[in-house]
Design brief:
The protein is built from 3 helices and 9 strands. By secondary structure, it is α+β, with helices and mostly antiparallel strands.
């Protein structure tokens, strides 16, 4: 029986080459498979959750994203903005957010949000669906001499405070809607999924 010589260098090269080619092939096979898990544009339009990066959202700024064909306002509030909220209660139609359909249970609090500094609202007036504009300045405005910041709808003069609560005298019947949402870490908000839901 003749002894066969083994070329160890060639064997290692073939083994390493097989591992590398297999790994690259696995990645190429996995990418479309994993991408298929993401909701399609049609699913997003139908209401699939959307993700918003709020890592660069400065105090007083608003980010708008689309969810179910509607604008979602995300605002970073300052301590001063939050401190002004209780002072507006006497001027509001629903200061305690008693109309339960207007917010998830987790947002039925003084600031109507999961985290006090981050406000998330559906950006459609509850009167006729117009999109109110954010005015954060605390100064007399033509529509309110005691303005403390909030949303104003110029179409029909509805106004809301910095928690989306509607003022008395506005044609809008209820507070702005808080959609279901949750946080994914400190820098991302998932719109369309409630905290604790799958």
């Amino acid at each position: 029986m003749a002894a066969e010589s083994v070329n160890h260098g060639r064997r290692r090269f073939l083994t390493a080459s097989t591992v590398v080619v297999g790994g690259v092939g696995g990645v190429y096979a996995a990418v479309p498979f994993i991408a298929a898990w993401k909701p399609s544009a049609k699913a997003v339009a139908a209401g699939a959750p959307v993700s918003a990066d709020i890592s660069k959202l400065a105090v007083g700024q608003q980010l708008t994203v689309a969810w179910r064909g509607r604008p979602i306002f995300i605002v970073r509030r300052s301590e001063e903005m939050l401190a002004a909220l209780p002072g507006e209660d006497g001027r509001l139609k629903d200061p305690q957010s008693a109309v339960e359909e207007q917010q998830p249970a987790f947002a039925k609090n003084a600031h109507r949000s999961l985290k006090p500094d981050v406000l998330v609202l559906v950006g459609s007036c509850t009167h006729l669906g117009c999109s109110p504009k954010l005015h954060t300045e605390v100064q007399p405005e033509p529509w309110d001499a005691e303005w403390k910041g909030g949303y104003y709808c110029p179409c029909h003069n509805s106004k809301f405070d910095l928690a989306g609560r509607v003022y008395e005298g506005s044609p809008a019947p209820t507070n702005l809607v808080v959609p279901p949402y949750r946080f994914d870490g400190d820098s991302r908000v998932i719109i369309g999924e409630s905290e604790g839901a799958a």
